Amino acid sequence: MPTRNACRQALDALEQAFLINLITELEAQEYKSADSDSDSLDSSSDDSWSSSSSSSDDSDEEMTAADDYIHSLAKLYSQRYLATQEEIPKSTEFLDLLLHEYKVSCPELFHSYLRIELDCFDSLVATISDDPVFHNNSNNPQMPVNQQAAIALYHLGISEVQQVL
Question: Most exposed among 1, 34, 38, 161, judged by the fewest C-beta atoms under 10 Å?
Fold first, then answer.
């Protein structure tokens, strides 16, 4: 089963709390209505008018629960992250290790990270390396094609594994 992120879990908990609160309020209102129906048989028409005006006040209280739910949803969606985010230092050390050491001495590790055979990876890089997408006239140089391909394959492989789990 796919894992759920913290935002989805918070949203589900908020929705469940709202529904439980709404059901409880509706049951309480029904109980009061049944109680007031039996009382209205004994009371005059003036009393029944006052009980109906108090029931309209109760509907204002029900809106408070809905308003709280909408406010909580807005607050939840206004935050990009629920937990504090820490910066992850990035370097090309692992990429170099993968493309040089693992590719030569540990092909099974290379395959486990990129989910592609060595010959197929080399063939892929040779096929796409002449494509204009990998060459630009910008002041910012692009990474070598084999590194870009390795990064893409790694991310595609991770997505595939997460969908299976």
Answer: 1
